[in-house]
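Worked example 3 (structure in, sequence out).
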C-alpha cells in the first residue's frame, strides 16, 4: 500500500481523498478516532477480547480495500460499524457460542473442580479502563450505559441471542443507532429490526439481574466499594475462610473459567475455599484492578523456582447494592491444553502457562511479576 506524507491537522475530506488515493497514513488517521469504540463493539458481539482484536483488524483491512467504494451517503463512522458488524457476524457463523460457567449446572456440595475446557468456550473479561471505554451513554437514544454494556452478565446474556438479534440490540440499545441506520447496517428493513429487537429484549430481560453492576456501584459509592474490595483482599490474603464467606451473599456464585465447575451458596463455597485457594497450599499476593466495568482483583502465586509471585487469575467481583459479593468470576490465565487428573492435584502450579498468564495480565495494565 502506498504511503505519502499527510499532516495530522488535515481536514477529513482531504484525508479521505488521500486515503482513497492509497495513502495508508491518511487512512490510519481517519479510523484512529473510531478504533476503541469498534473494538468494544466487536467484544460485545463476540464475548472475547482476543476474537475482537482479530475482528477489528479484519474489519479495518476490509475498510481499507473497500474505501474507493465509500460514497459518503452515510457517515464514515456508520460505514465502519457496518463493516465491523458484518465481520463479527461472519466470525459468529464459524465459532461456537461463548458462555460463563454459570450457564452450566452448579457443582454438588463438596465436589472437586473438574477438567478445564478449551478457552474458546468462555466469555472473557474486558480491559475497559486500559482501552479507554467512556462513561455514560453512547447516544441519547441508547438504553444501556457503555460500561453496563461490557459487564459480564450483559455480555453473557448477549451470547444467547441469535447473531442478527445480537447485532440489532447492540446497535440500537447500546450505540443508539436508529432503526433505519441499523437496518442499513444489516441489509434488512426497519420493520425487521424492530421485530428482532422485540425478541432480543425479551431474552435479555430474562437473563439479566434486576440491577446492573453500574447501578449497584453507584448506590454503594466509591468509598464503600473500596472498603469491600480491600476487605476481600485482606481476608483472601490471610486465608480466612469465614471472613470471606461472611462477605458473600447467601446465594453467591464462584466460577473459574476455563474450569467448568462452579459453586453456589455459602456452604458450598465454604468447603471449596477451605479445600482449594485458601487451603494453605499456595502463597498469594493480590492487586486491585478493574475489568468489564466491575471491581476486580488480580491474584498472583509464589514460584519458588523464580523467587517471585507470578500471574494466576483475575477475580472479577459482582457486588450487590447491599455491599455483599454476589459472584466471583475468577478467570484463570492458563493454557488451553488439557490438564491430567494427577496434575489437577497440584493446581495451580502445574496448570499455568506462564507466558500466556503474563500476556493476559499485561492486557489489563498489570505487572508481570510481584517480588
Amino acid at each position: 500500500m502506498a504511503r505519502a506524507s499527510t499532516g495530522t491537522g488535515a481536514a477529513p475530506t482531504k484525508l479521505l481523498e488521500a486515503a482513497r488515493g492509497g495513502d495508508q497514513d491518511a487512512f490510519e488517521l481517519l479510523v484512529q478516532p473510531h478504533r476503541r469504540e469498534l473494538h468494544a463493539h466487536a467484544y460485545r458481539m463476540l464475548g472475547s477480547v482476543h476474537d475482537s482484536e482479530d475482528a477489528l483488524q479484519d474489519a479495518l483491512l476490509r475498510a481499507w480495500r473497500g474505501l474507493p467504494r465509500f460514497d459518503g451517503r452515510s457517515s464514515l463512522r456508520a460505514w465502519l460499524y457496518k463493516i465491523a458488524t458484518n465481520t463479527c457476524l461472519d466470525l459468529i457463523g464459524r465459532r461456537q457460542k461463548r458462555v460463563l460457567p454459570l450457564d452450566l449446572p452448579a457443582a454438588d456440595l463438596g465436589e472437586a473442580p473438574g477438567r478445564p475446557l478449551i478457552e474458546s468456550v468462555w466469555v472473557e473479561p474486558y480491559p475497559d479502563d486500559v482501552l479507554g471505554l467512556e462513561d455514560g451513554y453512547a447516544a441519547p437514544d441508547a438504553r444501556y450505559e457503555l460500561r453496563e454494556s461490557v459487564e459480564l452478565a450483559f455480555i453473557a446474556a448477549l451470547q444467547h441471542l441469535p447473531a442478527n438479534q445480537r447485532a440489532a440490540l447492540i446497535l440500537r440499545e447500546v450505540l443508539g443507532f436508529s432503526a433505519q441506520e441499523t437496518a442499513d447496517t444489516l441489509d434488512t428493513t426497519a420493520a425487521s429490526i424492530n421485530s428482532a429487537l422485540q425478541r432480543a429484549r425479551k431474552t435479555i430481560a430474562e437473563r439479566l439481574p434486576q440491577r446492573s453492576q453500574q447501578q449497584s456501584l453507584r448506590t454503594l459509592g466509591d468509598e464503600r466499594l473500596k472498603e469491600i474490595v480491600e476487605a476481600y483482599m485482606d481476608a483472601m490474603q490471610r486465608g480466612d475462610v469465614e471472613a470471606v464467606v461472611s462477605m458473600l451473599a447467601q446465594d453467591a456464585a464462584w466460577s473459574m473459567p476455563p474450569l467448568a465447575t462452579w459453586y453456589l451458596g455459602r456452604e458450598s463455597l465454604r468447603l471449596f475455599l477451605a479445600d482449594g485457594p485458601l487451603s494453605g497450599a499456595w502463597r498469594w499476593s493480590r492487586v486491585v484492578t478493574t475489568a468489564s466495568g466491575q471491581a476486580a482483583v488480580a491474584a498472583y502465586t509464589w514460584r519458588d523456582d523464580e523467587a517471585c509471585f507470578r500471574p494466576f487469575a483475575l477475580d472479577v467481583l459482582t457486588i450487590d447494592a447491599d455491599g455483599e459479593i454476589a459472584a466471583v468470576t475468577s478467570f484463570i490465565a492458563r493454557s488451553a491444553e488439557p490438564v491430567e487428573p494427577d496434575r489437577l492435584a497440584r493446581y495451580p502450579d502445574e496448570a499455568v502457562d506462564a507466558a500466556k498468564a503474563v500476556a493476559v495480565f499485561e492486557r489489563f495494565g498489570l505487572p508481570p511479576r510481584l517480588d
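Notes: The mean pLDDT is 90. The two ends are 46 Å apart (CA to CA).
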